[in-house]
Amino acid sequence: MSDTDKLRTASLSRTTSETTISINVNLDGDGRAQIASGLKFLDHLITTFCKYSLVDIEADVKSHDSILHHLIEDIAICIGQGLDKALGDRARIMRFGYAIVPMDDSRSNSAIDLVRRQFSKFELKLERNEVEGIVKEDIEHFFRSLLQNLVACTHILVEYGKDDHHKLESAIKSFAIAFRNAAAIDQRRKGLPSTKDMM
Question: For position 6, what pLDDT does the model report?
C-alpha cells in the first residue's frame, strides 16, 4: 500500500440548533469506534460497523434539544459524509462489494457500488415498534440518512429472522463487510474503476 493509500481519512464537524457533532474517519484503520451518544444500541451498531469494516470512527456528539430523532439523524449524516469524504475521488478501489451474514435466526445480504450516484434501498423487516430503546422509525432513519450521505448505490436486505435485534446485527455486519470489500484498494488497478472514467 502506497503512502497515498494510507491517507484515506476525513474529519468534519456539523453544528445546528439541534446537535453538534465532530467526526474523524480512517478507512484503513483497525476497526476501532469511539462514540458515546447516550444510546447504547446505536453505539453498538456503529461499533459493529467499525469492527467488520475495519474503519476507525471517532465521534464527539452533543444534543442541544434532547430530541433523539435529531441526534440519531445527525450522527448518521456525519458518518455517511465522513465515509464519502475519506473515499476521495474513489480511484483504485474495488468499487463493488457484497456479503451475506447470518446472525442466529436471521440472515441479511448487502451489495454496494461505490459509484458517486446516490441510490439506496433497505428492508430491515422489523416487527416491533421499538428495539433496545430506539423506536423503529428512528432506526430506519439512521440507515436511510447514512446511506444517502455515503453517496453510493447500496442495497441492504434482511432476508428473514424472528428477533429484531438479530436482524439489525446481521444487516449492519453485512453492510460493513460489503463496504470493506468495495472500498479496498485494488493493487492491479490504475485510476478510476469506471468505463466512463468518472465516478
Answer: 61
Q: Which domain holds residue 17?
A: 5-183
The CB-based long-range contact list for 110-113 (8 Å cut-off, 24+ gap) reads: 110/154, 110/155, 110/156, 110/157, 110/171, 110/174, 110/175, 110/177, 110/178, 111/154, 111/155, 111/178, 112/152, 112/153, 112/154, 112/155, 112/175, 112/178, 112/179, 112/182, 113/152, 113/153, 113/154, 113/182
Q: Could you give the C-alpha distances from 45 to 37, 94, 155, in angstroms and in order? A: 12, 25, 18
User: 43 CB contacts (<8 Å, ≥6 apart)?
Assistant: 33, 35, 36, 37
Number of domains in the chain: 1
**Inside any domain, residue 190:** no
**Residue 142 lies inside a defined structural domain of this protein:** yes
> Using CA atoms, how far apart are residues 3 and 21, in angstroms rounded to an integer?
29
SS3 108: strand
Enumerate residue ranges in the chain where pLDDT < 50.
Answer: 1-5
C-beta separation of 183 from 97 below 8 A: yes
The CATH number given to whatever domain includes residue 162 is 3.30.230.40
